[in-house]
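[job 4471] stage=fold_predict status=RUNNING
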Amino acid sequence: MRLGAHLTITKGPAYLEKLVRSINADCFAFFSRNPQGGSARTIPEKEAAEWRKLKSEKQIYPLVGHMPYTVNIGAPKEETYEFATRILTEDLRRCDAFGTDYLVLHPGSHVGSGPDATIERIVRAIDAAFKDFSGQTMLLLETMAGHGTEVGSIAEIGRIFRLLGNPPFLGVCFDSCHLFAAGYDVRTKEGIDRAIDELDCEMGPDCIKAIHLNDSKFGLGSHKDRHARVGTGEIGNDGLRTIITHPVLSKLAFIVETPVDDYEQYGEEISALRALL
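[job 4471] inference complete, writing structure tokens
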């Protein structure tokens, strides 16, 4: 198991390394650009080489990028859809240039146009983003809570995989809070197995590459995406222990996204999780 948190890369590799060490992490996640979908910082090759050294020499890995929440590659409005597709294409290449292993994406929202048409748009956008791409970064589709018009159930992600021909550049990011809110009781091995078994029918468990590890403010099947700090929500310490010790999931990277006041507080979250072991 590798354990990390969602941090910032804006201050460069040296600062990030110190921050990772200070919270006793092994890996980290970061936004690929401003989380509201705005500007993206240009990373020169000299700095990109330093980011790559974090993995090869400092043993801080994997590097897990996250697309801005405002990017909706399932949007029915053409202008919004074209913008989202362009941002995905750009960020995939930007992140690959400095050694990002995985780029996580919320699949999208149909905004009233229906999931079928939205999935078709998502497939077209991903296909366009990977056209002529020869890098190593994998795109991970995140499992969603089922709130509103969002797309991202296990079945819907499986359909996206099949329509794209189950490509090797595509994977899945499980989110414990989202799965719990979607009705999978991840507090138990049986509940986790159910999610993995359904995924197995679609893509196979090897497609799971990373875990967003969060407690949930609301109960099982609430369809509400509200993260809680470790051990303070409806999943609880026993449930989180079940997740991090599950024979399939325990081999993966866990990224904490709990609501903390500052990055240093992630050290408390990680310490609490390590104590569960």
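[job 4471] summary: The domain at 2-276 is CATH 3.20.20.150 (TIM Barrel).
[job 4471] exit 0
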